[in-house]
Amino acid sequence: MSPELRKSPPEPLAPTLFDIARPFETTLDNGLRVVIFEDGRLPLVSFRLAFYHGDANDPEGKTGLTSAMASMLSEGTRDYTSLQLAEKIERLGAGVSARASDDFTILAASSLSLYASEILGLLAEVVLRPTFPETELDLYRRNTIEHLKFQRSQPPFLAGEQAARLIYGEHPYATVTPSAADVETLKRDELLRFHAETFLPNNAIFIAVGAVDRDELLTELEAAFGGWEKGLVPTPGFPDPPKRDVRSITIVDRAGSAQSNIVIAGLGVKRNDPDYFPLLVMNQVLGAGASSRVFMNLREEKGYTYGAYTRLETKMLAGSFEATAEVRSAVTGDSLKEFFYELDRIRVDIVDNQEMADAKNFLTGVFPIRAETQEGLTNLIVNQHLYGLPEDYLQTYRDKINAVTANEVLRAAQKHVRPDEAAIIIVGDAEEILSQVNGYADDIEIFDTEGNRQAMEKYSKSSVESDAQVSGKWELKINFQGQQLPVTLELLQTGADVTGKLNTMLGDGEIADGRISGNKLTATANAQMQGKGMEFIIDGKVDGDSISGTITAPIAADAIAFSGQRNG
Amino acid sequence: MAETFNLPPLEIEQYTLENGLRVVLNPDNAIPVVSVAVYYDVGSRNEREGRTGFAHLFEHMMFQGSANVPKAGHFQHIMKAGGTMNGTTSSERTNYYETLPAGQLPMALWLESDRMLSLAVTQENLDNQREAVKEEKRLRYDNQPYGQIFDLINEMIYQNFTNSHSTIGSMEHLDDATVGDVQDFFRVYYAPNNAVIVLSGAFESRVARELIETYFGDIPSQPPPPGLNVDEPKEVAANYREWEDKLAPFPAFLIGWKIPARRSPEFYALYLAGKILYDGESSRLYQKLVKGEESVIQLFGFTDERRGPSSIFVGAIPKPDKDLSQIRETIMKEIADLAAHGPTSEEMEKIENQLVNDVVRMRQSSMSRAQQIAEFALYDGDPTLVNTELDTLLAVTADQVRNAVGAYLNTDNRALLDVIPVGKG
């Protein structure tokens, strides 16, 4: 191919249309909703049985009850022991799993279509007839407690735990993991009662995708679940997440950390919010992927991190918006600076046409890729139904993305991206972090990895004071013998220490022993001027990007006044 | 049942361009997406002493721009076209792949060919990516509890440097690398005659062939890379080592064995043995350790598949008050039982169903098809193995499993790594 032709990206071939058919839907007499999507491409089936009941519905003082119930379903039923169930399922080469999220409890079963009836029978067995045997429960309790301890060695867990607490306050979404005390007191009869109360057909939906015959499956479903009795579905009332009005910093001190895990978090929106699509596009522009702004800035330009992202999490009742990166400890402060630069910019400048088009192309283009596998397609259908999205959601998804305007993105960013009210969470070495985060928030708290609040006095005092940040290039005006002399300071601050350069028309000098205390800068510059060594003593007061003060030098009898601005 | 299960073969077309680039097409129009996988025959096994980490550093360099694609332009072009992409490095190969809406096939070919032809190897890119790799090492290895144990045990299993050193490599070696080194590496290993390209998904074969010729046809071939020797003595390099881990909350151990190469009859048999021992809740070790003795928090095992001597691992994070040697004894007893009596017929039936299930699931995604085909094309020179591999696995007998376990998974010739937590917590 000629070098000329290689110069620009090629035109695409004619696009191929892609449509997802609408599934068949019905409801059994006991209220169990049924969705069937026949897809005979490969001899596989995926089943989901989902309950509109999740960890958020744990009773007061019983954190982890829903999760325990989900995990224990396959640990023994009326007809089979835990081992028998595992053997029966795995002998088919199949899988059955159950897990609870904040909003839902979802059982998933998948197998070769050859074994569809067997696996459906086993799914019904664990849903309807679990016995929560005492010995298995005992093992579950002890393993879960070990797991709770183990999680605390993982920085993302520690950051997520604090973020949830700060964003959701009294709302149950604030609890990301059960308390060890609650797990220790889990009782078998509690699980049995809770199962009877919450696993109701009229609070559930069954979804099948794959090589199934609709009529045969309906007959089998009727046989497996028809006798399951409906019940009363409680309507829980949860407190609203708190409204944040100031920015705060929460540090989780993990001594020996090679990195700082940064999470800048705020309240977002629930899944059904009308701003969902504008926010999806906004998030794509800002940080969802490897071509988004924060990745391009913090990784590609600055090299601070292996990856930097923003994340939009939308749950049933509320959601969060977070910017995250794992950066090397020494650039924690610099990374915050770049994050806040990007968070501010998306709220001020309208996104240009090219970036809008790029974000939309990505979101619409990956849609068929997500639907390529049966599991992927199943997840799309499951989410649509669990969150109560419109019937034509999957058919109109790409149109809705394409309809988002740059103005809607700007408005959504202004409403939901709130850097001034953000909760900054940093997991890492507290001593090293503290010296770098001054100026980002007045409100600083420190926790250990066990989640216990630490006294600030434990940390070296110099780093805790709210010191000014002077790194950058400063243009000073000095009034010397009736002349305005331009002087440039290039400063680099590490903790309270300042190094850098002083440049004048007459010669340049090195600053070696600068120091910041509060808003006061003191430094000595040893300069070579016209062949002579000369010492300048700088005594300044910093106010944001302004500085004023005096310079003492051998060439003048009195201290010389100066003022200046940071300029880069 | 498995013998009667009839899976239609994947459609495979293969040919070689004049410059030596091997091409495999797997047309499948079920969903209008296309995956492109480019596999270069270079991995950490090709690294010299003093230059470890080079293959992986190079994977990063491949995203730093080429004659007509700016730095980081690769990500951007793919994402803007509605696609996903990545690259990974192993001991055996470096791969690059993307999945795009079907109409964007020319974009993938343009991007892959431009960097194969004219990668921008500059000092600035090298410096920047060295930093990114260091960050990746901190994130994935240094800052993770147990993050370094797999690299450590490879050094214990293999005696030959070619096999034993880690893919992430030494940061000092990376610092020593010059632009000249990187340029040489590119010329030798990123030549069309050292690569395989696979297309899987929705495309017309005639159109794909024309596009591939247009974009890749004029990339000059290079002399073949130097040969390498992956031979290993039977004995492991070290039987025992303790590793102090600052971040680990609990003690742990990892046992590794050196086993024959992938696709050898012994490897297949040991792959099945692994499934019987540690795969799933009905596996022997899960039932003995997680259930029966209730002694471990986490149990894991896997095989590392290589063209040369390969390996198999079993590891556990025991509960804090448990005796590690007792747990290891249970593991070795279970292995000895498998070596003495072989798998049960129930176990063999389970494995057969799991193998069929795995293969059918793999076929759903154009990307996994492309990757699997690329491995067979690159390692074995025969992409149609993707259609016969299942039968080969299903033909493994219980006796073969028993014999292979007896011959290879013994106590004397194993590498045992003990992780000692030394954190402040």
The total of beta strands of chain A comes to 21
> How large is the radius of gyration of chain B?
23 Å
Count of DSSP H/I helices of chain A: 18
Low-confidence stretches of chain A: none
**Structural class by helix and strand composition of chain A:** alpha+beta
Biggest sheet of chain B, strands in spatial order? 1-2-6-3-5-4
Coarse structural class of chain B:
alpha+beta
What key phrases describe this protein's structure?
heterodimer, A: 568 residues, alpha+beta, 8-stranded antiparallel beta barrel, 7-stranded mixed sheet, 18 helices, 29% strand, elongated, B: 425 residues, 6-stranded mixed sheet, 5-stranded mixed sheet, 44% helix, globular
Task: Provide a brief overview of the structure.
The complex is a heterodimer of chains A (568) and B (425). Chain A is α+β, with helices and mostly antiparallel strands.
Tell me what the structure shows.
The complex is a heterodimer of chains A (about 575) and B (about 425). The mean pLDDT of chain A is about 90. An eight-stranded antiparallel barrel of chain A has the order 14-15-16-17-18-19-20-21. Chain A is about 35% helix and about 30% strand. With about 575 residues, chain A is an alpha+beta fold. Chain A contains 18 helices and 21 strands. Chain A starts with a helix and ends with a strand. By secondary structure, chain B is of the alpha+beta class. The model of chain B has no long low-confidence stretch (mean pLDDT about 95). In chain B, the strands form two sheets. In chain B, strands 1-2-6-3-5-4 form a six-stranded mixed beta sheet, sandwiched between helices. Chain B has a five-stranded mixed beta sheet with strand order 7-11-8-10-9, with helices on both faces. Chain B is globular, with a radius of gyration of 23 Å. Chain B contains 16 helices and eleven strands. The interface between A and B is large, with 79 and 85 residues.
